[in-house]
Amino acid sequence: MELLPIIHADADAFFAACHMAEDSSLRSRPIAVAGDPGTRHGIILAANYPARSYGIRTTMRVGEARHRCPGLITIAPQRELYTAYSRRLREIFDQWTPLVEPLSIDEAWLDLTPQMDRWHGDSVKAGQALQASILSHLGITVSLGISINKMLAKQVSDWNKPGGLTILPKDDISQRLWPRPIIELFGCGPSTARRLASWNIETIGDLAKTPISALTSLGIQGERLKTRAQGTDYSPVVPPRITDRQSISVERTLPYNLAPDALTDQSWQPLITELLIRRTSTGLDGRTLVAKYRTSDFTTHTRQITTSQSIHTAAQILTLLHQILARTPITQPVRLIGLGLTDLRLPTTEQMTFWQNV
Amino acid sequence: MQFTVDQNQLAQALSMVIRLVQQQNTMAVLGGVQLTASDSGLDVQTTDLFSVMTVKVRAHVIEPGTIVLPAATFNDLIHRLPTATVDVQVDPHSGKAVLKYGRNRATIHGFGNDQLPEFPTFGEGVVSVTLPAGTLTSFARQIIFACSKEESRPILKGIHIELGSGKVVLVSTDGSRLSHAWAALPDYRGPEMRLVLPAKILAEASRLDSSGQPIVVTFRDGFVQFATQDTMLTSRVLDGDYPDYQRVIPQDYQVQIRVPTADLRGSVERAHLIASKDRSNAVKFNHQIGLLQMTASAAEVGQAQEILECDSQGSEMEIMFNSTFIIDALKSFSGEEVMIEFSGVQSPARIRDAANSQYFHILLPLRQLV
Predict the structure, then answer these.
(1) Ordered structural domains, chain B, with CATH
(2) Is some CB atom of chain A closer than 8 A to the CB atom of B152?
(3) CATH at residue A333
(4) Measured between alpha carbons, how far is A126 from A110 in angstroms, rounded to an integer?
(5) pTM metric for this prediction
(6) Which pLDDT tens digit goes with each residue over A4-36?
(7) Are the beta carbons of A309 and B150 separated by less than 8 Å?
(8) Please, which residues bridge with residue B368 across strands?
(9) Which helix (H) or strand (E) holds A342?
(10) Which of B173, B279, B282 sits opposite A345 (nearest CB)?
(11) Does the structure show a pLDDT above 90 at B96?
């Protein structure tokens, strides 16, 4: 029997599912996670399946969603809740295999190769057990794609949502994957799809059969997409190492545009706090602070400053921020501000200090 | 206003005061140097609002008066004059100063009737001590480097000064190292005083030593004044509580190492070349009786290993320091030998000039994380 050791797990309507897991009375009712229209976040971020039956989709405006479904319950996003569920999801994945590569907050690849004996070579049984475990522990459902490699598993995991399990053996590629439109290929965005269409490449199969010489104008991406379309992209499932992280950043759209002089320390304070919490949780040492702001004309500016010391206090961040802003003052009203730490490394030593809070 | 003055003396006075002048000022007049001619001569003064410096220059005053001139321009011009004396005449209506030197002349526009802000003058009932010439210069070299450079800890940018019966103690720290120096004041029997002076002011005050005269230091609520016969620097002190530094100085040491200063400096500087390629500047010190080994490594750069024979006693120990801390401390020593004392792998160490017990440095080690 052919081994299909790779699983792509994708939580169904994740944000909405977290809220339903917390309050089961929401399960049968149409709910959507959406920002407060008053603060310009008036867009649907996630909708549960009852809501989707009304035609409500992610990125739809709240006003339109309400029009389609007057009984729609909208919930403000709660990042901490999603992060907590994401972490617990990850903990369950880790019980199945040490080779877990997260793709986003609610998706991950699992390589069961080291565990195949435990499941007698049957990754479908392993997948079903995984789904059952997640449902009973977290109260949310995940859809799985199971195949010979990462890309194929990802390709099919959403074919039977919600709660589905799709298997794609190697022999099925030409019959089931190739007729699909090219836009469904992982990594192919709308503009690439349009370019391919102009060369009469409409389906994944068309791309798989196109000689690489015809794709040279797409560069390395062309090669990568063609390999994926053929089903021969065998990139390994790589658990992230903490040191792979290059930066930590946080940002916030302001409730209304702020004139430069109305942008005070207080405006930055919540971002500073959040940044420091994120830094602490990674344990990384950063010495470059990045300040980002988007002006009312939608131009995004980033400025950075590097110090000799590890940045780990709010006072340090404020001082550096003042230095950045003194060097290049903001001259236009601002609609978004952000902060980040870059050039992160896992510290090997730490300078001891005499006093904790001087 | 009109006076004649020696070019060299005026140039020297300007060199002293010009350092208080900030490049960018909220008040334009702070970019100026104030000249006051009176029966007692010429006063040359600048201020940055936090401190004020005045230098007296002998002058032949024909007509008394006061004017503020742009400091940088006036300073540059006086330094370049070809003659031994210069005559300065100010027209009070136009606010222009005409400088005559030999057959030549220059005109500089002043700040009109603006004068530098007044600083409180020192009256009676203050505490003062006299420091022998050179004392402040030694203090500056021994302890300024250990001050914090970070805006986030303003009090640590200062020098803690403790005046007590018979001696004065100065302390600086950036939170991870501490420098401690003292000088005897055999004649002082006044009250005990504690204050924090910006490191920059100590550096400026030490320049008064160039006169070779003793410096009179006067303390008054919130202010300190340093004065020689001709020069006076008055500064505010820093607000805030200085941390309790006494308890971080170890009382006992487990290891004592005596080693030639120049040899140790050479070794640490070579190890630092490698260590500085890594963020922590970590140099590992391994002590065995009679031997001190220093190692440093940086990924993708290389390793350094230095071995010094030494006169030592106590236990074997391996302890890691930021190499710049050691180098800074060594630079402050003038004696042939240095004493290093360890009180534990994760405890403060003391490093001092074996020939001078009037100052020492306390250094905290680096802690290994992985």
Answers:
(1) 2-109 (3.10.150.10), 127-246 (3.10.150.10), 249-363 (3.10.150.10)
(2) yes
(3) 3.30.1490.100
(4) 11
(5) 0.63
(6) 999 999 999 999 999 999 999 999 999 999 876
(7) yes
(8) A349
(9) strand A334-342
(10) B279
(11) yes
